[in-house]
Amino acid sequence: MPVIKELVLEKLSGILIDESKDSSNIVAAGLVSEIVIANDRVFFAISAKKEEKDKFEIVRKKAEEVVKTIPGVNVVRVSLTSHDKSPSDLSRNDNTKKASNKQSVEGIKYIVAVASGKGGVGKSTTAVNLALSFRNLGLSIGILDADIYGPSVPKLLGLKGRPNPGTGKKIQPLNAYGIAAMSMGFLVDEETPMIWRGPMVISAITQMLREVDWGDIDILIVDMPPGTGDVQLTMAQNVPIIGSVIVSTPQDLALIDARKGISMFQKVNIPVLGIIENMSTFICPKCGEASHIFGKEGAMKEAKKSGVPYLGDIPLEIDIRVGSDLGKPIVEFNPGSICSQSYNRIANDIWLKINSSEKLQIVPNIIYEE
Amino acid sequence: MIVNDIFMKIPKDIILSKGKNKIQLIFSDLNKVSLDAEFLRVKSPSAEVRGHGPDDAITVYGKKSVLISKLELVGNYAIRIFFDDNHSTGIYTWNYLDELYKNRDNIWNDYISELRLKKLNRE
After folding, report:
1. Contact across the interface for A369 and B76, Cβ inside 8 Å
2. Does A267 contact B77 at a Cβ distance shorter than 8 Å?
3. Which of A3, A257, B67, B120 could potentially form a cystine with B20 if both were Cys, beta carbons 3.0 to 4.6 Å apart?
4. In A, which residues are within 8 Å of B94 by CB distance?
């Protein structure tokens, strides 16, 4: 007979922290870790303050006894984990599942990386317009410009000036069109090159992510630099990215690198939410004829080949370019245009994918037997 | 959404044994495997062990009683294992762990022959 977790919890909630009548039970106090059930074995941990270890040893024994009485349970292993935090902190942080998920960024629900592989395919333009489309869905959005050497977000959003120090040690992001933004471009002049080696870049990005007061954000879009190097690896190792979006032109030259980007994300087990084909066609403003300047449907074919979803295309449109250079993104300033509608549709699709991919992500619990 | 088979290789729980000498991986289908600290240590995927090519690879020996002091998740794809001999640069991807326990016997036998050949031992 399979052992049911609820049953274990029910038994455990009969155990009081203290013998005294008004003490709360160990489950309600948030002291019980994630319960692991493997066939007839039950494992879990109870959190105890260091100085209360003796008292909790009694609790631990009791927990073992009551769980053993459940039919089907053969082996019960309960460990005590000690720390010096108050119980309210415990329930928030020390549930083993959450403890292992320590990479998460305060206030941010989901992080999506917009990447390409190749430079110059319109990654940042896409990132910014998607950000606005997400905002149109009623989501609160932030954008982190992870391109230290060539930050484009300030220009695209028409942002100038420096971020202010906020509460505590954190700095305030800038804001444009309701989107919180952080970029190296806010910290140095437009003409100043960043002549940095990898480790400096990593530490700058880590700061821009974690030492910024993002507030409550549904999606943080990370505008990734081209390539598969230091920055990409750091993001993959230290940041809980829910998924990535690959931008490519239909051109073979760009697709080769897009493929590398896809395969990098697959290697580090970050779901690829899909490919966007940017600059897909050029519609002649005079005669209305569509020219496939960079080739036809290259990204769509690539998506099929790599087994990743195809999210749609954005035409090569003069309004996008003009708006980008003026800091007036098309989704904001010409919301009725075909391009804006494409961005909106793609954003909607990505949002649905994020919600379903959340269920796919398994974060293992790390458990120390004591 | 592509669900590649890596999802089957991600453990639900990673348990470091009380004796710190093995880890147990429990998968969502409740399948369990356990890997010894010595085995993980000598087969560390770190460049310190593997080198930057087959010619650089070294044979790690004398790790019979090595223990694991800490486990850390790396992104969505791996764990980093800290051993008590201060080796901590090995990043064990779910794929690599899968390979290790599926081929445990062969890998281990090859390792033992390698030790014998080089006149090294586990102690």
Report:
1. no
2. yes
3. B67
4. 269
| Range list for CATH 3.30.300.130 in chain A | 5-100
Per CB-CB distance under 8 Å, the chain A contacts of B28 are: 362
Domain with CATH 3.40.50.300 in chain A: 108-360
The answer to whether B16 faces chain A, any CB pair under 8 Å, is yes
SS3 content of chain B, % helix, strand, coil (to 5): 35, 25, 45
Amino acid in the structure at residue A132: L
Nearest Cβ partner for B26 among A36, A241, A368: A36
Question: What does the pLDDT average to over B32-52?
Answer: 93
The CATH code belonging to domain A5-100 is 3.30.300.130
Q: Do A367 and B14 touch (CB under 8 A)?
A: yes
Radius of gyration of chain A (CA): 25
Q: Which CATH class is domain A108-360?
A: alpha beta
What residues does each domain of chain B span?
A: 6-117
Residue A268 has its nearest CB partner, among B3, B71, B76, at B76
Specify whether the CB–CB gap between A353 and A243 falls below 8 A.
Answer: yes
The 10s digit of each residue's pLDDT in A214-259 is 999 999 999 999 999 889 998 988 888 999 999 999 999 999 999 9
Query: Going by C-beta distance under 8 Å and a sequence separation of 6 or more, which residues neighbour residue A332?
Result: A132, A177
Query: What was the pLDDT predicted at A87?
Result: 39
In the sheet that holds A75-83, the strands lie side by side as A36-38, A41-49, A75-83
Across all residues in chain A, what is the average pLDDT? 86
A202 touches chain B (CB under 8 A): no
